[in-house]
Amino acid sequence: MTPKDVILIALGNLWRMKLRSSLTICGVIIGIAALVSMLSFGAGMQKNIAGTFKSFDLFNTLQILPVAPGEDAKLDSLPDKKLDDAAIAEILKIPGVKSVYPEVTFPVKVEFGDKSTNTSAQALPVIETELSVFKDLSAGRFFLSDSAEEVVLQQSLLKKLGVVKPDSIIGMKITLVSAKFDFGSALNSLMLGRELNPLVEVRRELTVCGVTQLNMHPEGMTWKQLILPAKTAQSIERVNFSNPLDLLSQLSSDEQKGYPYLNVRAISTDRFDAVRDSIDALGYHTFSFIDSFEQIKKSFLIFDAVLGVVGFIALVVASLGIVNTMVTSILERYREIGILKSLGAEDRHIRNLFLVESATIGFLGSVFGLAFGWVITRIGSMIATYFMLKEGAPVMELFDLPWWLITGALIFGVGVSLLAGLYPAIRATKVEPVKALRHD
Question: Can you tell me the distance from the alpha carbon of 342 to that of 60, in angstroms, rounded to the nearest whole number?
């Protein structure tokens, strides 16, 4: 028998058992669809995280912390060098460093018309707005310089200010109200017997230049609702404490308080390791987002394995159906197998005949299973998008169907089907022609 004869006979047998073959193929379809839809969700989440890291250029970014990651902020663990302006100047001299800026956030009250709300402001140097994630704004643009009298607002803040359309606030003035410590005011309060209030309001009027939906930053950090140019934020008078203990610490110390941490961006990924090694050599404690991303990838391997088990179980159940179909086929075609052997068919021809039938079931089931799995992901994506829009969250695609998943599903489906058909194929080769010809 030629390979062509084996294939034609195998396909003819499957066509002759249309109902049984269809039910067996349906089992494979369900198994592959479950496997693909589950792994597609995992692939989609990984793609979103990788895309976020890339859009923020985090593969080239590290943070300098006041203490080593995982250590408690004890006095004996503090480094000799504070994270201050001198540290920024020192790090900027390292070859391969593109930008260094501190993490600066502070509470403010925002006034717009007759509306006001309390929120947090965040300083950002204009060089960071070159990142792709800052290119797509809901309205307007980002500030053009570090000293611009402009501000970018989160879309979530507009609701508190009574603004419905982001475009309507572009070019409008808002007032930032911060608080500063005034010893004179405190002294006057004590002398006049009034309630002690050492804080006075500082008002600053800025122009809204842009509105963004940039809510979440990788690693769980949240972007503040109001983003200021770095030098503009520096020029705003404000208190630099979050509780009374911080205030007492500042009043009792003549030393300048350092920044919470510094963000450092390398020119390119190729220069990143050299930059990190140079900063470590200076005695600073660094945290690399690349290391964090590697940990996330390891977590996703476990996540994908758990998801894949569900599809694998369904596919194993389908493979039992293939075994049942093939074994039943042997009993029904006992005489046919004897005739083929008596006409000169060898054991390998009979074995290949059943393996081709199993592979065909696996291939058809995998192809239609991929299509069914894709339909499931589209339905899931539409449902997820609906709830994202309803909650006002940024819309993202939760599912992804990469080529490795498509190819892997096809190979896996056919491979499992071949394994399922191996036992019936071997059993078919053991049929004796004489007994088979006498079989009714």
Answer: 71
